[in-house]
Amino acid sequence: MSKSDKKENVFKRIAKYLIPWKGDKRSEIIRKICFLTAACVLIVAVSLMVNDAVQRAKTKKLDDDRASEFHAGADVSSNVSSQTSSQPESSAPEEPKGFGPISYPQRTVQSRFEPLLEQNPETIGWLTIKGTNESYNWIDYVVMQTIDNDKYLDTDFDGNKVKSGALFADYRGLITPTSEPANIVIYGHNMQSGEYFGRLPYYFNWGVSNPDHNDISFYKEHPTVEFSTLYKTSTYKIFAAIMLNTESDAGEVFYYHNKQNFKSEKDFNNYVAEILDRSTFYNPDVNVQYGDQLLTLSTCMFGYGNTDLRFVVFARETRPGESPTVDVEKAYANPNPKFYDLYYKQYDYVWEGRKWDKKLLVGYEDDE
């Protein structure tokens, strides 16, 4: 028998073992079909994983290059304050009249955004949470804004369909040359790789991976957020971080994302009080008062009961004349944050009511 005949026989035996063949018993046919089906599913799954990894690596490279180019811009000095260094004094916001949206004189676009706008005109800003050294930032991405909150859930800056999507500001609080909302709400995916808002839950000192609820070291290392709109650059001081449910089956829902503007001082204070109830840490060095512009960073959360969760970080803009630095040594963990009914049942936990120091919210009068 020739080598070619032997080779043909080997392939034939393999084929007969894997593929339904004339004369096979019913049970053997079923076994082969199940095997082939499983093999096809595995091949497709592996192909999708490889394709996703390749796309993710490509997107990350583009994100990193984009960040380097953006920070190489010359609009902002190294000492970022509540007003853009390139904007005149006349561009300062007016005092709140019902507080929102905040009005500005006509503002010009910072020049470092011009290349981004040429690539994607739905660019609205840039968000940065600095790392522990100057060569690395924990979060460092362009922020988009369009006519709905769906597009950038699965579309990146370059228009590619990807699971990671992009950071985007809520469309209900438009940022324009002459106005912006009192509360800018930004969404991003909680990626397991840590990209986009994947590191935002590091602020959660009640996390499963962090059994020491008093450990607020991540907040102390990263107490501020730098957010640039097209028109100004600001440092925002973080004052709270919360975990909450979005489904009423799990308990009362706090609709934090529906507040872009405020009807009155009482409306503002009631909103911030609900946030402070739920915050897992406090810092007396960062109080909040009516007229402060807020920045809300929102992402998905996993675990803690069979329900749809969000993890949200809140910050307020550095006030005119105020130092952008934060005294983190004054910060402390909240021993009893407010969660939701399903959490209480699962973890045998009881919220003891509103006990935070009222000095954290200037001018607040507790109606409870």
Please provide a brief summary of the model.
The chain is built from six helices and 14 strands.
Walkthrough of the structure:
The model is unreliable at 77-91 (pLDDT under 50). Helices cover 26% and strands 20% of the residues. The chain contains six helices and 14 strands. A hairpin with a 3-residue loop joins strand 7 and strand 8 (233-245). It has a single domain (73-362), classed as Sortase (Sortase, Chain: A, Beta Barrel). The strands form four sheets. Strands 2-3-4-6-11-12-8-7 form an eight-stranded mixed barrel. Strands 1-5 form a two-stranded antiparallel ribbon. It is globular, with a radius of gyration of 26 Å. With 368 residues, it is of the alpha+beta class.
Measured between the Cα atoms of the first and last residue, the distance is 94 Å
- Main beta-sheet annotation: 8 strands, mixed, barrel
What portion of residues belong to β-strands? 15-25%
CATH architecture: Beta Barrel
Mean pLDDT: 84
Count every beta strand, where a strand is a DSSP E run of 2 or more residues. Answer: 14
CATH class: Mainly Beta
Radius of gyration: 26 Å
